[in-house]
Amino acid sequence: MPMEDNELEDLVKTWIDHALRGGDELFWAWDRVTELTTHDPESVWPIILDLIQAAPNDQVLANIGAGPLEDLLCWHGAAFIERVEQAASRNSRFRKSLAATWGWNRMPGSTCYLLVDVRSLPCRPQFQRSWIGFKYKSDRGHCTSPARR
Q: What 3-state DSSP class applies to 132?
């Protein structure tokens, strides 16, 4: 069931507030986005894009990348990889969020051929990484980051 505009706005605002401040009273938004990512990935894609657009800073962009974007790629990557590549090629905020994904060892190999150059972007505040592409490691059925080759 599609969300009403006001529901979507509230979800995005509350998810971001939770990323900034935490708090049990805001956790429902994180939980809802996770539920949609798991069970209704088509409906969460525009929410992820809205979260990225509304993120007030790089820390929240990293939280989106390490949260719903990473989960979407890990659980449904094959269905979204082309959209992810298109968004990354057009949107620097999306690339920053994408740079914070770390679930590459949980993704199917076909998803790991994401060849988006996100050099010089912060992955997480304490790291600087260059994710150019990912190598498929057939013995595990997953890929590894360039650092693990």
A: coil
